[in-house]
Specification:
The chain has 179 residues and is mainly α. The chain contains eight helices and two strands, in the order αααααββααα.
Length: 179
């Protein structure tokens, strides 16, 4: 193993990223969210897309079709997703957020926003914005990396391999209030 400096910003960021799973679990626990954040992200994507094929959901989540199918099925069993007729192809079925799913997503997103707001209450608002912007920029950079899904890099787990994503509803009722 090569010696790497431990003080460069990229090394500090890489080390901080190891803490993301613990941060997510802690936020989920604080917010009292009983569904995995990944499941809530599926609901958020479905809300944004509207009634969709599971393949479109998988593409929007950047996960394998089997991962999206499994997540959607679990949400359907729980009553948070409905199957609806495809208006363009009566033989096909689309998945859509059910009224119960909308309510669950709104409630969970509100509690998550409240938990985050409590944790960063003593932070400078610009620091909170900078962290959010930085994470979104990093996500965009990862998504733009053409080698990210390269099987020759099996030591680097990809979102498609893990199905691990943070729920960030694109248009929840609490989004504006917590900017």
């Amino acid at each position: 193993m090569t010696d790497r400096p431990t003080t460069t910003p990229s090394v500090q960021l890489a080390q901080a990223l190891y803490e993301l799973p613990a941060i997510r679990r802690g936020l989920q626990r604080r917010a009292g969210i009983d569904h995995a954040l990944g499941a809530l992200r599926v609901l958020a994507v479905l809300r944004r897309l509207g009634p969709s094929r599971i393949s479109d959901v998988a593409a929007a989540l950047a996960v394998d079709l089997s991962v999206a199918s499994r997540q959607v099925h679990g949400l359907e069993v729980d009553g948070f997703v409905d199957r609806v007729a495809d208006p363009d192809d009566r033989r096909a079925r689309l998945v859509a957020v059910s009224p119960a799913g909308d309510a669950r997503l709104d409630a969970a997103h509100g509690r998550l926003c409240d938990a985050v707001a409590e944790l960063v209450a003593d932070w400078d608002p610009d620091a909170v914005r900078a962290l959010a912007d930085g994470l979104l920029r990093l996500r965009a950079a990862v998504d733009a990396d053409p080698g990210a899904d390269d099987p020759a890099r099996p030591d680097i787990p990809t979102p498609a391999a893990t199905g691990d994503h943070l729920a960030v509803p694109a248009d929840g009722p609490h989004q504006e209030a917590h900017r």
